[in-house]
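Histidine kinase
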Amino acid sequence: MLFIRIILYSFVISIMLFLTTIVLPDYLGFNERISRWIFIITVFVIFLIFKEKWWIKVISAFLGLLFFIVYIVLFVP
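Structure:
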């Protein structure tokens, strides 16, 4: 059950990072600063809402970055 939660948080972080760094600035015309703050606030709220241990959040943040790199390699031409 713990592994599923870590993977779920990682996917949420990676999808938010993908949306705020690639989709919002390039396709919707948002400023990069606004996109960065949207990502920071969203992830901060997610980490505050979910009452998990700190090491689960750190592991899911690192896995989220790895998943984001995979998204970049697969989906961005």
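The first helix runs from residue 2 to 27.
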